[in-house]
From TrEMBL:
It comes from Microlunatus ginsengisoli. Involved in the oxidation of myo-inositol (MI) to 2-keto-myo-inositol (2KMI or 2-inosose). It is an enzyme of class 1 (oxidoreductase). Pfam families: GFO_IDH_MocA, GFO_IDH_MocA_C. The keyword Oxidoreductase applies. Homotetramer. Residues 137-327 form the Gfo/Idh/MocA-like oxidoreductase C-terminal domain. This is Inositol 2-dehydrogenase. The lineage of its organism: Bacteria, Bacillati, Actinomycetota, Actinomycetes, Propionibacteriales.
């Protein structure tokens, strides 16, 4: 196969970005079919690259001139579309989430397993970012000794009002979920969300920023500051603390200028495309190369399922204010301990000065 013929489902900001990359920067790929809920948007993108518009996404998946599928449509329709790709036996790169609930994601994992081949790749692009790759290799090689803790920072300059506390978990923190699993090589078993004072830029009822705390199977602790209305820039940093050292990525190592008046500074990436554009291109190139062989090269269905399960626990933690455990198949949950009864005399029970 000299060119992988691709159908792109959903050409909003992310889908249109992928179409542009596949057309201009990725070798061996050709977008042949575009499908979107808004026909006029689909026609605009398709006309610009000489592709056809197929309104029905399932028809687009099954089109005779489509070898593989890239799904960038809203998460609510991923379940149906990913299943259609499996039924057609076509490799698919699905932007997160794999689906919007644990049960449907688990069904997809089992369905793919029954086919005896991996067809589903999930779009966690940070795994392809050179800095994250270098940090992962440093951990695997033992360069930091035993990794003990991970500290993440995820800040956006601005987001739409529908980014409430729960949406922040599902759409933003999900990246740190996958980063944790990628760097530490183990599952997350619990999530806790600590809410503080909200920025005045947040809509009523939205906790922004929040501190999200993960605990992994081995007891490692991961913190994630999620703040999506900073009004500043796009900042993503990760620090791993080990027994023999620590390492940090995402330190905005851009041009630093010092001036005669004593001022100094540089620029921070304004958005996710500037920060992770290279990672997206590497991800797409490796997916295209693998899809030509009928397989994937990156995070798969289980990774998508695990992320959905952790985010579901995170949403529960936002609502309950308690630590919530991840309902992931094959992972034993800790036994809840009964509270220790207070056996002090009644007159000794109460507030202390």
């Amino acid at each position: 196969m000299t060119e992988l013929r691709i159908a792109v489902l959903g050409v909003g900001m992310m889908g249109a970005f992928h179409v542009d990359a596949l057309t201009k920067r990725i070798r061996g790929a050709k977008v042949t079919v575009i499908s979107d809920y808004f026909p006029e948007k689909a026609k605009e993108v398709a006309d610009a690259i000489g592709a056809r518009v197929v309104d029905d996404p399932i028809e687009a998946i099954n089109d005779a001139e489509v070898d593989a599928v890239l799904i960038a449509s809203p998460g609510a329709v991923h379940d149906v579309q990913v299943n259609a790709c499996l039924d057609a036996g076509k490799p698919v790169l699905c932007e997160k989430p794999l689906t919007t609930d644990i049960a449907s994601s688990r069904v997809i994992v089992e369905k793919e397993k029954s086919l005896g081949k991996e067809l589903i790749q999930v779009g966690f692009m940070r795994r392809f970012d050179p800095e994250y790759v270098a940090l992962h290799q440093l951990i695997v090689s033992g360069g930091l000794g035993n990794p003990l803790m991970v500290h993440c920072t995820h800040r956006n300059p601005a987001v739409p009002d529908h980014f409430n506390s729960e949406f922040m978990i599902r759409d933003s923190v999900v990246h740190e979920v996958d980063v944790t699993r990628f760097l530490l090589g183990e599952e997350i078993v619990s999530v806790q969300v600590i809410k503080g004072v909200a920025t005045s830029a947040a809509p009523a009822g939205t906790n922004d920023p929040m501190l999200v705390v993960f605990e992994t199977e081995s007891g490692r602790i991961v913190t994630d500051e999620i703040y999506v209305r900073t009004g500043v820039a796009y900042e993503v940093r990760t620090e791993v603390v080990g027994e023999q050292g620590s390492a940090t990525i995402g330190l905005d190592q851009n041009l630093q200028v010092k001036r005669t008046d004593g001022s100094w500074g540089g620029q921070i990436t304004p958005g996710f495309v500037e920060r992770f554009g290279q990672a997206y291109d590497i991800e797409l190139q490796r997916w295209v190369d693998a899809a030509k062989q009928g397989t994937i090269d990156g995070p798969g269905a289980w990774d998508g399922y695990a992320a959905v399960a952790v985010c579901e626990a995170g949403v529960k933690a936002v609502r309950s204010g308690r630590k919530e455990y991840v309902q992931l198949a094959g992972i034993a949950l800790p036994v809840e301990e009964e509270p220790i009864p207070d056996i002090r005399a009644p007159d000794l029970i109460g507030d202390r000065p």
